[in-house]
């Protein structure tokens, strides 16, 4: 593929992101209970292995990003798809805890090499000026993963069982996703930085990973992203029971929650429409501000359906745009040259938070079942997240201004 046709990369990644997110992340919610029922294992083992895979993904995110910076996404993402195929086949054939945990470890490595951070780093390397638009477009397709794979997995699981369902997904990764990733382009043949001669949007210098790690803005940004994702992962599991404790029926809770998906897409479309006129930092401030606003509405008026609907609308928009913010803000603050390594390092704590969110929320509920208690805790965390993001943007802007004066 010619490097002058980068939008072909987005089209290829659009398909592989839907498959990767759908099979590696979303499908587990459908097959987990059948796995537990057949194998007779404790809940901690069945679900803990999935959380373990997210931890592995977090640990592997930085090395994966470094490799993409050095050799491009073609090799890394192709290997990631092969790992995904082998890992899913391993889960499908597991009859022992050792094989089950080993397979999920392999899937964790695959997540680090195939999901958003790897795809964003690949787009950043291939695009010269339109990487922000490429990332925004890709997230629109990635947002379809749950919409496609929840009903698809349910249908396959009902028809063939969970083992054959995972074997089918394994074959898709090996037979379709791996070859498509192999066609991502000859980025590995490029000299480092060749695609980035124009600098980046902010006009400031490109940071190495080591330099970024010495910046306070990096750690503030990492905390902001990880705490924000902690909230989203906690609510992804506990939202329906939470709404029931506010007094809503299951049917009402599920119906209102369906607003979240479309609003994620709406938020991403809105970001695309205004991308040329709004800096990434401003988009981030808006995104981090929306979440506490949504939580306040639910905390104060959770018994009312209108307030729940408002929460779901704002929550969905914030969640949708946050994915783009995670892709574009690191580039704006630290440059393009080592984007993969830096964004991978930022993703590590976020993936750990993503794994910890549901477990921590369950512990909070066990201590106090009041819905206002859990929402109050998440509200405080969301405010801390906003403050940290504002501090990261401000400290980086101040540092850039001082370097310009010097």
Could you walk me through the main structural features you see in this protein, from its secondary elements to its overall organization?
- With 406 residues, the protein is an all-alpha fold.
- The protein has 17 helices and no strands.
- It is globular.
- About 4% of the residues have low confidence.
What is the rounded Rg?
21 Å
Q: Report, as a whole number of angstroms, the end-to-end distance.
A: 43 Å
Helix content range: over 70%
Strand content: under 5%
Class computed from helices, strands and strand pairing: mainly alpha
Number of strands: 0
H/E series: HHHHHHHHHHHHHHHHH
Sequence stretches where pLDDT stays below 50 over 5 or more residues:
187-203
**Mean pLDDT reading:** 85
Enumerate how many helices there are, as a single number. Answer: 17
Task: Summarize the entry for a quick read.
By secondary structure, the chain is mainly α. The protein has 17 helices and no strands. It has helices at 7-26, 28-39, 43-71, 73-92, 97-114, 116-126, 131-142, 145-160, 162-182, 209-213, 216-245, 250-257, 260-274, 280-301, 305-334, 339-367, 371-405.
